[in-house]
Design brief:
The chain is an all-alpha fold and about 170 residues long. Helix content is about 75%, strand content about 0%.
């Protein structure tokens, strides 16, 4: 039954994700994958939706809104916070940096599928190119960007409770 549901919803999901992706700042494939994940979670907890097409349209819009919010709220640091560089070698700072690195590595190991290998390759001190990473993972170079986005999204969700607790 799940296979039939996925097969019947796939064309609609592809169309809806393509329509919503541009405005949300997401890749259509990322939206699709997020909605498939929501559907699988729902099937496990509540069973299939009574109106799968309506549920799917709503789920795509919800994921697009979530992506827009995340893109709007995330701001990269322009520089290090004031005073960090001058105290970088103090024992407390070194201990905190080591704890952050451990938390990051632990979260990377908990990622699903080939995400741990991908993120490890991205964090490699060898500064690997996309071509080298794709070859190492045995995937096409063109799928590396969307895969990276999905993996980083998963990593972000794993780290959010730790960042909030910190």
């Amino acid at each position: 039954m799940t296979h039939d549901l996925v097969t019947s919803l796939h064309p609609l999901l592809a169309a809806e994700a393509s329509a919503e992706a541009q405005a949300s700042g997401a890749e259509p494939g990322d939206l699709e994958q997020a909605v498939w994940l929501r559907l699988l979670e729902r099937l496990e907890s509540e069973g299939p939706p009574s109106d799968p097409h309506r549920w799917l349209r709503s789920a795509v819009r919800t994921e697009a809104r979530r992506t827009r919010r995340r893109v709007r709220n995330e701001r990269p640091y322009g520089t290090e916070p004031a005073g960090v560089a001058e105290y970088a070698h103090e024992p407390e700072r070194l201990a905190l940096a080591a704890a952050r690195h451990r938390a990051l590595r632990d979260a990377v190991r908990r990622l699903p599928g080939r995400c741990p290998r991908l993120v490890e390759a991205l964090l490699s001190p060898n500064d690997l190119t996309y071509r080298e990473i794709a070859g190492e993972l045995g995937i096409s170079q063109g799928s590396l960007g969307p895969e990276r986005s999905r993996c980083l999204g998963c990593l972000r969700r794993l780290l959010t409770p730790e960042v909030a607790a910190g």
